[in-house]
Batch of 4 targets.
Target 1
Amino acid sequence: MLTTLQKTERNWRTLAKGNPDDLRRWLPGHAASGRMRALICVATICFGGGCYGASIGLWNGAEMAAYVGIKLPFIIFITLGLNALINGMLAQIFGSGLGFKQTLAAQLISFAVFALIVGSLSPITAGMAIDLPGPNSDAGGDAHKTLLLFHTVLIAFAGVIANAKLLSLLKEICPSPRIARATLFSWLAGNLFLGAQISFLLRPIFGQPGIKIQFLRPDLFTGNFYESVWWALTRLSQ
């Protein structure tokens, strides 16, 4: 009999490999699915996402690192929760064969893969945060813009890899590759749009120079994520 630790290690290895045939057994309705696999995904998101978030906030010090380490997993779980109903409906509209529970489980697996990727890169991003000029230095403004754009690209990269794994899983389940792609892109559009805005609402993530470190901004609902990215691009080009 395998111990709980051995089962956990084996499940994490399965998740890291991302074999669609193995991950298919993690979905509700399959004989091999179980609560432990869902907990593995939740723990991976908390740990991997938390480490990556802490590496981002480290540019502003330990307090900010703790704040962002808490907020990044929350962004993922809030996005999953708010989009769960509409994504389940989209899966059925496109004829994927997935129910609401299976849709949520499939996306939980995808976000866990995302957390594995960014979590594994957190030592590098932590080193980058330490090496860049601090927020109180003369070059703090440029360093902040660089961090914002770099992590936007990195998050997009990890998202592409995670969704490629999710597409492989959907192709194992859906009646055709076309339905799998349509289902994935509909999920991706909603998750990207909502996730980006939630991350903006839960700012500060990077901690803008000259602004007090705090868990949430008082101007919570002022502006949006897309305006901030455009602002960074225009300022950096100047």
Target 2
Amino acid sequence: MIGLALNDIFKIGIGPSSSHTMGPMHAAHHFIGSLSPELLTKPLAVEVTLHGSLAATGDGHGTPGAITAGLAGFHYETVTLSDIHAMWQSATTLGQLSLESGAQLRFNPEQHLYRDTVPLSNHPNGMTFSASLEGNVVAETRYFSVGGGMVEDQHGHTLATSAMQTRGGPFPYASMNELVDWCTRENLSIAQVQAANEHLSLQLEHDAMSATLWSVMSDCIDRGLAAQGELPGGLHVKRRAGALWNRLLNNSQGDKAPANAAQRAMVYAMAVNEENAAGGRLVTAPTNGAAGIVPAVLKAHLDEHQLNEAGVNRHVSVFLRTATAIGGLFKMNASISGAEVGCQGEVGAAASMAAAGLTAALGGNPRQIENAAEIAVEHCLGLTCDPIGGLVQVPCIERNGMGAVKAIAASDLALAGDGQFMISLDQVIETVRETGRDMDSRYKETARGGLAIHGLKIPVTAVEC
């Protein structure tokens, strides 16, 4: 294996969930796109069944609205909340959707979207799409939302493969140990190996994709710090990032950045995840539920340095491409899906990625980077995914803030060491996989255990469509 590409791990999308919002929208979009143009000229009726975790907590993650918009031809990269609202209104009022081609689909999510809480064998996040004509099924496909907005079909094929996956790369690796070996043998950094596998220049000052991703991440932080009010969904959770940020500003002195990096990163991370909970535009890192940690730690790092444009571009590229390599190892060898391994695969992976990226940006060598990544996730082992009301709010928002602090601490510890350590990242990732396998399904995004049932004693809450 050669790892995953930058845009496999970091995707521009919409909240509140990469696996329960973005993935289902992508699957619905793909299903309609797979139908022949001739078939779309006929009065098709579409039915959708959600399986496993998607059935159990999909309402709280906006899955019905996401699927409706996807069937109408929208994709998470460009869709807006207004688009989703409009498609929901059309489908529930008229019982049909109008496609860009002019075709009409008979689909009302309140009548034609079914829930089966028994998971399919492939993955807990399953979906079955069926199109029929005059009562006869003419097309049926199963999809699986496997985390981070990634979707596989019933044959295990990834829907959106990157150029890296289709063209291969010069430095294939399937473990951290193999990745470090390439760095040593070729005298390259982890970020350079990752860039080379995407057939890109090793001059990381000119990394257009990283710059684009950082622009979206930075904008998301700024919006989150400026926004006030209550988050949707019925839990009456108030946004706090703005108030916390103003407190840091009021306590700052002179022209110094307010407070220390860990305090700033904590607030930045909460700002991102409040935006995610509100259905805002953001970047998966590697998921929406954990999207605040990587950008928060990166921004806190950039606060500390007076860099020109080329310097910012290089630090951003080194940080994000190093984080990509680490995130890819989690995806390949364990999981980044909360429904599969719990939050250790989301916040745990994100903290590991952020710790690695920060250590690389600060000049750490590959073994120190590995050590930072290992420390961060080691202390997230066993984290459950049991959000109250099925919403990506409590404890998810605070958990991102704590994950950012943990990533910075892990980097500090690794940089204070000599690159020698007892537990490898590969061993910890394997432990994530085994722990996730052994974890009771009640604690893996099913709203049947933990905080999901003991927090406020309320059922899964539907977000506003």
Target 3
Amino acid sequence: MNALQVQQLKQFKHDITRFMMMYKFALDALETKIEILKEEFQLLHDYNPIEHTKSRLKSPESIMKKLMRKGGDFSFHSIKYHIQDIAGLRITCSFRSDIYRIVDMLGNQRDLTVIQVKDYIKHPKPNGYQSLHLLLEVPVFMSDREERVCVEVQIRTIAMDFWASLEHKIFYKYNEDVPSRLLLELKEAADSAAALDRQMERLHREIEELKEERAGHGEDDVQQIVINNQQFALPSVLLELIGETAAGERSK
């Protein structure tokens, strides 16, 4: 290998490292936004709609294989144009309604651009797969320029995630035609997961309505206080007593 080839190899290594860093930074920025939304929602509503998140970056080898399948030319511009799921973020929610709530919250972020929405919940895939997919354009501020980086976001419930994860494990690297009876069972399992989602959402909604009804009758009247990042619930009557005591101390 001559000096020119060595230099070209070093330059390529530098360029691909910088290219992949952009996608990592985009994921970092998006995950930070999600954490802020989680904390805000918990504080305002005493409820967290997000169970957990998981991010991943495609490896350069996986990117090259997909680029070859798509017939794109070997350039960073071509990769960025043809492959929009280099960076991926999966958000797992408690209930189906939480999914659309999170979509709205992300859509309201002024620096994020929603490029595409694929709703496999309202329109499941033939095998029963359900999830909501977003393509988001995330701004990344490098030392010498701003880049708009595409991130694929998958939002699903715990039941949807359970089904999809096991479906992937069962059929991973199985390149033959799947027998129709197994496909039917797979679809039935997806339908069962969807039914469970609907049932749990109904239970959640009814419990919330009961809590609101009790609060309207003065039952369980509590207020939240925060001390050293710890949240405590105190009955209103106790807070009133504290206020009266403090007023009495001031009048002495």
Target 4
Amino acid sequence: MNNPLYPWQQSDWQQLQNYVTQSRVPQALLINGALGIGKLHLAQTFTHALLCENSQQGGFACGKCSSCLLLKASTHPDFMEITPEEIGKNITIGQIRDLMEKLSLKPQFARYRVVLIHPADALNNAAANAFLKYLEEPTERTVLILVTHRMNKLPATIKSRCQKFTMAMPDKSLVLQWLSQQTPNAEIVLNLAQGSPLLAQQYATDEHTQQRSNCFAEFLAVANQTNHPVIIAEKWLKLPEATLLFWVSSWVIDLMRYRHQSAPKNLYHADFKNALSELAPRVNPLKLYEFYDLLLQSRRRIETQINKQVLWEEILIAWAMLNRS
């Protein structure tokens, strides 16, 4: 099998391979790092390598042995994957109890048994407590791999019983080289993704680009009083909150840059520079900073049970008022 890793993952892979060559594979490995840098892909590649019966140069799985074929068919008896049963939902205690029952049996193959849990921060309280009991007394030849980009959401008791493996943000030049092969707007989408290559790859799609352009046009329409904040809030309710909130925040940051510089560099949205440069002189800088504070507060509130329609109405009405002054 050829090297299946992303270009920026070579040093991470070498560290994982050191665990294998030194016979020190952790019983519980917690892979963490920013969103969109390939943590799950690295964990899956490591899983395949641990289960492979005929690993290749570099430690990668061969892809041809019986174990690899079973993995491809999703029928390997010594591999278990735990994820939320529905997108956006928690991993439940029922899922963990089913897992514990399977882990009470011995592995069927001579190598490792691997459990992949992602995102690990989706464990609800009851599931986390049940899983903690297993972590305290793990079974033989079992490797637990947990993947998360939100370490702070995991109970300290679980984190303390895992070997932490932190993936750093990849080198920008390396990512740009990889991304430039897929899109002519590599630098723009990478800035939008805050350096996360897989998010940037997603942002480069025609659908995402069009959606961002549409939302920016609606943002300008509210500023120009050609559309009502409540109408736009209702439309935005259907979009991913975190992504949309980042767009609005970064538009405001770019406006701040234009307030202080005639030709600012490192804009998040360089493709919108004409509209941003025209809008910037019209907005009161002090009120723009106050609006940005509201956006920062909204980042924290968006993960609560707040009514999202009300949240977007508040943001867009504040934006409309700012542009009337």
